[in-house]
Amino acid sequence: MLVIQTNKIKLKPRKGSGEWHSAAFWVLVVGASALVAAALAAFACWATRRRSALAHKLGGKRGPDKALVFQPPRRATAVRSPGSATHYLRKSPSPTAAVPPPTTSPPQPQAPTNAPSGGNSPHTPTAPEPAPLSKELADANATEKPKPIEPETNDGKLGDLHFKLRYENEKNALVVSVVSCQGLPGREPAGPDPYVKLQLLPEKQHKVKTRVVRKTRCPVYDEDFTFYGIAPHQLAAITLHFVVLSFDRYSRDEIIGEVVAPLSTLQLHSGEATALCREIQPRSLKMRSVGRGEVLVSLCWQPAAARLTVVLLKARNLPKMDVTGLADPYVKMYLLYNGQRIAKKKTHVKKRTLNPVFNESFVFEVPAAPNATLDHVSLELLVLDWDRVTKNEVIGRLELGAEGTGSARHHWREVQAAPRRQIADWHKLKE
């Protein structure tokens, strides 16, 4: 009996302790639930007030059964000046622009103070109509500065170059002002990107160029170039050589034409500017009349090493690239495999000659194969005129390969039939 009572005494505190913990837990659960319910009630109240405020602000357009978040966004409108109907950042009206006709719609009644500016009644929607937008575009078009009218057809002419000349005795300086070009041919729908290159002949030491004027056939430059160290007795021997080009970002600049102005036919007075206008002449006519010249090339094919040796010996009868009757030629070579360029070489520049002698040898590694041949290989040669200022101009080109024509194809077959042997031949340059 004593043992059983002792066990009862020990179990009573454990039972009381479990009841105390259970009560505290339920108190915490009830309190947390009350807090969550209060937060949800507060959020619902705030959302209801917010929705009613937006509905009142929109003037009752949106019904209570429509969702707020799925409404289409409002169209952006121009910023208006407070208290007036004009827009910010508006250009000043041009005196030469056409005046838009007055509107014939009757005047609208004065809108209340809480209605937006622009003459809308309280019952009309506040979203902008297409009419104000088109009116804004019409105002912008009316205030734009009118562009000069450019000629569409030139009747085969290349236009005119306007420039000025002035000589200063005190500084021994010749000042050349490139003013503008008029009536350039429109070789692109939006017009060319012309600029002018100038050099003094026959020395070709002073070379300058103007900036590029985008998309126009009547560019205006108004740029002055001063050449120092020119004595008065040297003026008669100087010739101004202008070249008008069209800039091309992705390929070589296109030559529109040139103007040659010898100073021996002009009377320059110290400090006085002389305005001149010269017609732009085509530059390609000289090469069409006299041809593009010839080049002597020697080839040697080594099948065991899969190596092609090219010896560029010389060239003759190249066209005159300036009024002095000279050129600065050099040759650039490309090795093509299956129509793709895989290697390139170039010679040195030969100054002031139309019959350059190169005598330079180049070795090209042909992609190795079980049976290396020249069936899928070709050689492209470009003869160029070197220029210090602008991109070098191509005089002529030559392509040697199995798919060539004429002497180029015959020469290539001879090299294939006689490996390890140097075979040379003359080839005419093509455009």
Keywords, please?
431 residues; alpha+beta; 4 helices; disordered N terminus; C2 domain-containing protein; Synaptotagmin; calcium ion binding
Give an account of the 3D structure.
This protein has four helices and 16 strands. The chain has 431 residues and is of the alpha+beta class. The strands form four sheets. A four-stranded antiparallel β-sheet has the order 5-2-1-8, with no helix packed on it. Residues 1-17, 61-70, 77-99, 103-107 and 109-152 have low confidence and may be disordered. The chain crosses the membrane at residues 23-47. GO terms for molecular function: calcium ion binding; calcium-dependent phospholipid binding; clathrin binding; phosphatidylserine binding; SNARE binding. It comes from Euphydryas editha.
